[in-house]
Design a protein that fits this description.
alpha+beta
Length: 94
């Protein structure tokens, strides 16, 4: 599913206009991104959570040239799957 399909589904199921559904979806994702940018954890209990993970600087290698480069420290969002989502996706085969 992509963002456009989510907007269409929200529009159909909640009797919203295309613009209203788009505003809801955009608000949801922008608030998630804002929370992560502030360093907050974002969680939908049972489905998933995102938090920032700190990575220290390290020495890397440019794959094209082979030259050794210093990689600066960084923070990246880390995704963790919730138990309910994991159970729904990892169902036993028939």
């Amino acid at each position: 599913m992509n963002k456009l399909k989510l907007i269409d589904m929200l529009k159909d199921r909640c009797s919203l206009t295309q613009n209203e559904a788009m505003n809801v979806v955009n608000l949801f994702f922008s608030q998630m991104a804002n929370a992560l940018a502030k360093g907050d954890r974002v969680e939908l209990r049972g489905l998933w959570s995102f938090h920032l993970k700190d990575y220290k600087s390290y020495t890397g290698r440019n794959p094209k040239t082979g030259k050794i480069v210093r990689v600066a420290p960084k923070k990246l969002p880390f995704f963790k799957c919730g138990k309910d989502l994991k159970a729904r996706v990892d169902f036993p085969p028939n």
